[in-house]
Amino acid sequence: MAHRHVLQAPPRVYQIIDEISRRWHESFDTTQEGWQERLRQTAILWDGEIRMANLSVICSHSVNGVAKIHSDIIKNIVLKDFYALTPEKFNNKTNGISHRRFFAEANPHLRQARDRGHWRRLAEGRL
Length: 127
Description:
The structure is a single chain. The chain is mainly alpha-helical. About 55% of the residues lie in helices and about 10% in strands. The chain has helices spanning about 10-25, 35-40, 50-60, 70-80, 80-85, 100-105, 110-115, 120-125; strands at about 45, 50, 65, 90.
């Protein structure tokens, strides 16, 4: 059954999504309590829609937020069914830059003033 959101996409794109969805359904563990609801929540193709986030999680080896709070939201709310199935896939990584590093690189003159302890004079416009 073709889904309305990809009817305009190249046929091969839909075939690939459909095949990934089929394999996900076939591999699903039906011995767990509540598996039907979990399958519904993690399905790629459902009710005429393509759930791109679900497709991304299923096709990825790692899922992370850019901060601990984002990772916690992903694990506990947004993708909780996936987390219950594959907790090892979920982790937290920051975006790699702290506010101190950004500040130092973005404005070297202000960084030098900070390093020399000239904050008060700078704030009063005396530098």
